[in-house]
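Take our chain:
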Amino acid sequence: MSVVVDTEGRQTVLVVEDEESYQDALAVGLSAEGFVVTGATTLADARALLVRTTPDIILLDLMLPDGSGVDFCREVYHSSRIPVIMVTARTSEVDVVLGLEIGAADYVTKPYRLRELVARMRAILRRPASTSEEEFIAFGDLRVDFVRRSVTRHGVEIDLSRKEFDLLALFATHLGQVVTREVCLDTLWWGMQLSDTRTLDTHVKRLRQKIEVDPTQPRHLVTIRGVGFRLDG
């Protein structure tokens, strides 16, 4: 494990990676891009570091010597909401969807270009903690709390993944307005081509299943064919 001491005004990144070549390359490359880099080669080291420090973002390998990065990502999402980018050799669609569903902010496969990784990191770090100046928005029997990042129906919390909440928050801050597919992709899936919107459609479908009384006849989250989506109160 290696630690680089913070300097004023620089964003910090925790790199959880057991391959020395990737760990060293990221430490050098990210430091050159202005980040303060903290490294951990095991989940135990990463958990210990999070007790003492709070990085701005985490780069997480999935396959680590003492366990799966999937479990660690889930822990981080539920305990701190620090954004996690999964950086892994696994490339199947199942792995990507699983990573996003458990709370990853993004998913990058090896080998990758450092400039693209940095661009994804900065896009995530530019996202405001709250997408609205209001603390919450209520519509129908639902309440979206931007501070707690929670959604409730009659006081009962609905379990949403990070991406599902971000997507609902995007729609909620434009209540009654059409949000185009382009805006959804640019905001939540940086770099995804408009021609490949299966991930977006999957998240909309799952979001409907959780917030609609009858997902087959949505009352709130409606599709505007050929354009995008609209959230109605």
Summary: The domain at 12-126 is CATH 3.40.50.2300 (Rossmann fold). The longest helix spans residues 198-211. The chain has two domains: 12-126, 136-231.
